[in-house]
UniProtKB/TrEMBL annotation:
Key word Signal present: yes
Signal sequence interval, chain numbering: 1-19
Species this protein is from: Dromaius novaehollandiae
Lineage, top ranks: Eukaryota, Metazoa, Chordata, Craniata, Vertebrata
One Pfam family in the UniProt entry: LBP_BPI_CETP
Keywords: Signal
Gene this chain is encoded by: TENP
Protein's UniProt keywords contain Signal: yes
Name the UniProt record assigns to this protein: Protein TENP
One GO MF term attached to the UniProt entry: lipid binding
Domain Lipid-binding serum glycoprotein C-terminal: 243-437
Length: 452
């Protein structure tokens, strides 16, 4: 995967406010999740320190040492790295690194470089989140020597005051990659070929002993242009149950989030269906006689379904359901379509939810609770029961197949590159869905940041 600093995903939770929006989802990063990021960040931190410190003299890091000494750093080993929550403030980064010093071919020493830094996140002029160091305190002490006389010499150097600016510049370098990851947080993510979504942090996080809580607004776009969707009627806040999870991270998605997803797809035309019925005009004319007078030859009957009203998702304990409100036009001809009658169709479909990597997988189960009624007709009145007899089976099959085809690639959840979700549990509650999960750093990818 290359040089990936796991601090980036933590910092995605530290966002400035966008007060004009209303959150519809969010997440809470637990202390165990923070510890995981610290653990997987050690290699990246060590790589940067090796690049910048190896070959330098210890005197380069100290004040009052204008002349270089022979005590050169020939190895760097990060022995400890931790990230701690500072309630109502930010994060505290602690790094302990052992610097191997080559004094002579036969003499070596080890100096412990300790760095304590407080981290904050700001919004830069480009509108991206950017990590900065608000405070930094480095210390150096000798921990091992092979020669007592040389040890005294090095100890004398170690007693000198550290050049804070030089050391804290190293901390700033450690933040370059996390800031690149932060810049990717608000990327437009594909839902379909022409529909995208975007997660925007709304408010400064709530940092407590339980973790880091953030609220997010989901924006849906068609060909890069934001779709005018209703804002959540009530701002969504993280349920108390989310902070009780032992997982690294718990995502929470509101009922409004799911409704907005399906409304965006409907507006984009993703669920529109044009399909052939197994019936022909001659077969339908046996039930609706005026069809025969309209068409002298036997032609295939075609159905075209569009949304007449916004879809809705209903979340109850342990189950999710999608309500669809369609108009199905019945007619003949392709591509020139001649409409004969139009049918209002209301139906419900159970939704099955799961997570793969960083995507939420949604599939529609069997369609039920279907109501058909005549909306318009060129062939006179048609009883609802007859409409069901002629067209219900095809409508069910085609709508279900179209929805599952559109949803088959999954929907990106809030995430940063190079991490996936594991040990996932999807729990459906009334009005919201909780997704407690652990995080896993992906295998090496040749040093590139994985997007999407």
């Amino acid at each position: 995967m290359g040089k990936i600093c796991a601090l980036g995903i933590v910092l995605s939770l530290l966002a400035p406010a966008l007060a004009t929006k209303s959150p519809d989802c969010g997440g809470i990063l637990s202390p165990s999740g923070l510890s995981y990021f610290a653990e997987v960040s050690k290699q990246h931190v060590e790589t940067i320190l090796v690049q910048d410190l190896t070959g330098r003299s210890v005197s380069d890091l100290l004040l009052g040492s204008p002349k270089p000494t022979r005590n050169q750093i020939d190895s760097v080993k990060v022995v400890d790295l931790s990230l701690l929550l500072i309630p109502e403030a930010g994060l505290r980064l602690s790094i302990d690194a052992d610097l191997g010093i080559a004094v002579s071919p036969s003499t070596s020493k080890v100096v412990r470089l300790s760095i304590l830094a407080d981290l904050h996140v700001e919004r830069n002029p480009e509108g991206n989140l950017e990590l900065t160091v608000s405070a930094c305190k480095p210390t150096v002490e000798e921990v091992q020597s092979t020669e007592e006389s040389e040890s005294e010499s090095l100890s004398s150097e170690a007693d000198k005051e550290i050049d804070v600016d030089k050391i804290c510049l190293e901390v700033s370098k450690l933040l370059v990659l996390p800031n690149e990851l932060l810049a990717s947080l608000t990327a437009q993510l594909p839902v379909t070929a022409s529909c995208q979504l975007q997660y925007l942090p709304l408010a400064a996080p709530v940092i407590s002993e339980q973790g880091i809580t953030v609220s997010l607004q989901t924006v849906f776009l068609a060909s890069g242009t934001a779709l005018p969707l209703p804002v959540s009627p009530a701002p969504f806040s993280m349920p108390e149950a989310a902070s009780a999870s032992a997982s690294h991270l718990t995502l929470a998605l509101s009922e409004h989030y799911y409704t907005s997803l399906f409304l965006a797809l409907a507006k984009d035309g993703a669920f529109n269906v044009t399909a052939s019925s197994p019936l022909t005009t001659a077969a339908v004319a046996q039930k609706i006689s005026q069809i025969g007078s309209l068409f002298r030859e036997d032609l295939p009957v075609r159905l075209k379904a569009t949304f007449r009203s916004s879809p809705r998702v209903l979340l109850e304990e342990g189950k999710a359901a999608l309500k669809l409100f369609l108009t199905v036009h019945v007619g003949v001809g392709s591509p020139a379509f001649q409409n004969v009658l139009s049918v209002s169709v209301d139906m419900s479909a159970g939704l099955l939810l799961s997570v793969t990597d960083v995507k939420m997988m949604i599939s529609a189960a069997a369609i039920e609770d279907v109501e058909l009624s005549l909306a318009a007709s060129d062939v006179g009145p048609v009883p609802d029961a007859l409409l069901k007899e002629l067209f219900l089976s095809t409508i069910r099959e085609e709508i279900l197949a179209q929805m599952n085809a559109v949803l088959s690639e999954g929907i990106y959840l809030p995430h940063v590159p190079n991490f996936i979700y594991t040990d996932v549990n999807v729990v459906i509650h009334k009005d919201y869905v909780l997704i407690p999960c652990n995080l896993k750093l992906q295998p090496k990818t040749g040093g590139q940041i994985i997007t999407g």
